[in-house]
Write a structure and sequence with these properties.
Blueprint (H helix, E strand, L loop, with lengths): L1 E4 L5 H9 L4 E4 L5 H8 L4 E4 L7 H6 L5 E4 L9 H6 L3 E4 L5 H16 L2 H9 L25
Parallel strand pairs: 1-2, 1-3, 3-4, 4-5
């Protein structure tokens, strides 16, 4: 089974593919659309992130293609209609960025309590305006998180 890994995914994922008997893993990071067309011709599976577009043309030439896996939330870079027409399963990892999103959210919340960007810019310019950048402490604060659910 040939697995075309068209975009950089976690090395853990690539190693899992390589550990399987009978899997021929082709890593083709940064390939042009023309190169992807050629490499996809005999691929059984294609793994992508968001850089590579899996178009109707790619799906049509990939006669052995059974599955396209998107290491990420959306599938807007994959022609779902063409995949469906050719019986190709399209998968994604809808919770794959949950931890990164949560960490970024906390980073923004912390950054909102202190003028981090302005302090950084001042320091890079050779200034340390300590009194200007005191911010406020989180201790004894209540956090409300408006949401959509």
């Amino acid at each position: 089974m040939k697995i075309l890994v068209a975009d950089r995914i976690s090395p853990i994922g690539v190693d899992l593919f390589k550990a399987q008997k009978g899997f021929d893993v082709v890593e083709a990071y940064g390939s042009s659309p023309e190169e992807i067309l050629e490499l996809a011709k005999d691929a059984d599976a294609i793994a992508v992130r968001s850089d590579t577009r899996i178009t109707a043309e790619v799906i049509a030439v990939a006669k052995n293609l059974k599955v396209v896996g998107r290491a990420g939330v959306g599938v807007d870079n994959i022609d779902i209609e063409a995949a469906t027409d050719h019986g190709v399963i399209v998968m994604n990892t809808p919770t794959g960025n949950t931890i990164a999103t949560a960490e970024l959210t906390f980073t923004h919340m912390l950054a909102g309590t202190r003028p981090i960007v302005q302090a950084c810019a001042g320091m890079k310019a050779g200034r340390w305006d300590r009194k200007k950048f005191t911010g406020s402490e989180l201790n004894q604060k209540t956090l409300g998180i408006p949401g959509m659910g």
